[in-house]
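dude i think i finally got it to work??
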Amino acid sequence: MNSDTALPARKPTDWNTDAMQQRIRRRYASERRFKLLGLTAVGVSAAFLAFLLISMLANGLRGFTQTDIKLPVDFRTAPILIDPATLKGPNVDQVLAGAGIQQVTQHAAVAAFGPDGGTMVSDGAWLVVREAIKNDPSILQQRVDISVPASTAIDLAAKGHASSGAEAAYAKLKAANVVSTSFNSGFLVESDATDPTLVGIWGALKGSLLTMLVTLALAFPIGVLSALYLEEYAPRNRWTDLIEVSINNLAAVPSIIFGLLGLAVFLNTFHLPRSAALVGGLTLALMTMPVIVIAGRNAIKSVPPSIRDAALGVGASPVQVVFHHVLPLALPGILTGTIIGMARALGETAPLLMIGMRAFIATPPDSLTAPATVLPVQIFLWSDEVSRGFIEKTSAAIIVLLVFLLTMNGLAIYLRNRFEQRW
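look at this
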């Protein structure tokens, strides 16, 4: 073959060479394996999340229901001496306190369901009877059927989790057509109790709201102003560097350390009331503040310098540049970081245990200094109870906490979209 008709020599980088085609195939195969690995990781994460949610919902949704027993009470023969006319004044509770309603309820249960009838109704069934008398004093002269909550054993038997003895008692009640299932509204409006059929989440939820209010009122303004100073005004020297390193380290400190700090400073030094929402809010504010400062600095730093230059060019003062232009543009990022920090504080238990917020609180707090507890601590306390009835209440409380957290995250998304500005 002549040299002028010979094919040009192939270079190693030619796409049509066998070596190059082999490298391309290996590259595509590597990309497919990486994509498959990513999809597997997402699938495993989604499976764990689905398992967590399904198991919690399976146990927790039962906590929002209760088993009721239709209890016949004949007040005409009951050992109760109350003049219905005395139940119309302001001293109704005092009159009913000494009326022996608890004994009347137990007597009615034994008369209706046999010797074991007293164990079939809840220990708080007499409270329902008392409310029925308060709402309609005329029943003191009648025989009426009052739906009272069943005992823990009967309630678990109705939900398929009880011993054989309780199942037999439940079958007896079901055969008599006196049991029913209803929504447990008391779980949302009552506070803690020793009987799982009487517990409620409102006391802990209100304590969480008050604690978060104190945390937000302290951590947000101080954190935002600190971020503004460090990013816009602070000189660059060793002291500023030391402050920045300290803030970054504080954001990574275990939460129980802040609990020890709150115990030493707020309780032992300033002698603030133990187990109060005020002390809990102060402690969580110390923990949340570094997170807000870091998020605020990043948001402020993301504002383009051209915004500052344009504002200064039209005659704005440095303070006006910061508060009229920089801060509004950085506000979405600051709010997002704030809500994330608040959500982290809402789920904390260790620092609040250190300041004594694990006490048994039977009434919702009515002030910032009143004894209170919070949702995570209430969940911790219920999970440590011996009675099996607290298991579903613990899961139901976790659902309430998750709804609270999702609401806060939804608020963060709304605020970010509401105040976000593009340039």
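The chain has a mean pLDDT of 85.
im so relieved honestly
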